[in-house]
Structure formats: C-alpha cells, structure tokens
Amino acid sequence: MLSYRHSFHAGNHADVLKHTVQSLIIESLKEKDKPFLYLDTHAGAGRYQLGSEHAERTGEYLEGIARIWQQDDLPAELEAYINVVKHFNRSGQLRYYPRFAIDCSPATARTRQPATDRTAPERLPVAAF
C-alpha cells in the first residue's frame, strides 16, 4: 500500500498554485450577497513546520512558498493567499505553512466573515512533526 504524508510536500509549488486558486474562488464568492458552503474533504493537519525533518528532507517548499515569501512585487491575485501565510508566521520568518491558505483556522474565518455568516469548523490538531 502506498502512503502519503503531506508534511513532506507542504508549501511546494503545487500547494501555492492550488491555494492561490482556492483563495481567488473564495474571495469571489464572498463578493456575492449569497451564502456558500466550502467543504474541504481532504484537509490535512492544521499547519506544517517547514523546519521539520520531513520538510527539510525533500525541500519542496523552497521551490514553492519560499520563492514568493518576501517578494515586494507580487501580483494582486496572490495578496489574500500570502496574507494568511504571513498570519501564521508573525515573526516574519517562514516557519509554518497552513493546511489551507484562506480562512484556514476557525479564528481566521471568524474575523473575515460577515456578521450574517455562520461557520462550523472542526478543530484539527496541529501537526506534531
């Protein structure tokens, strides 16, 4: 049986692309005056430590989030995505990658949603590796 551990791949180029597209879709849906449901059926751990043995072994994040982390000339389309990644790295050093780059935690979701919206987040443990 094949096994997959996202901690080896978190923050790689595919995550950057996927989470950027997800953030653009969600931001677009939030502009409408209609409710929507977002259900992530394949969410992983709450956040990934980019200095972990797994992340360092592959180094995939170096060709993904690390390449755009502190660039000043990012396209506007990346703003919402990178702001949430920065929320998880308040020290200014890239140490963590969230499981989902937009509204990725109950706390973040509640601060960004209109008063008329409801959430039903499931609390997930932070990755221990």
From TrEMBL:
Residues 108-129 are annotated as: Disordered. GO terms for molecular function: 23S rRNA (adenine(2030)-N(6))-methyltransferase activity. Pfam families: RsmJ (PF04378). SUPFAM superfamilies: S-adenosyl-L-methionine-dependent methyltransferases. One of its GO terms (biological process) is rRNA base methylation. This is DNA (Exogenous) processing protein. GO terms for cellular component: cytosol.
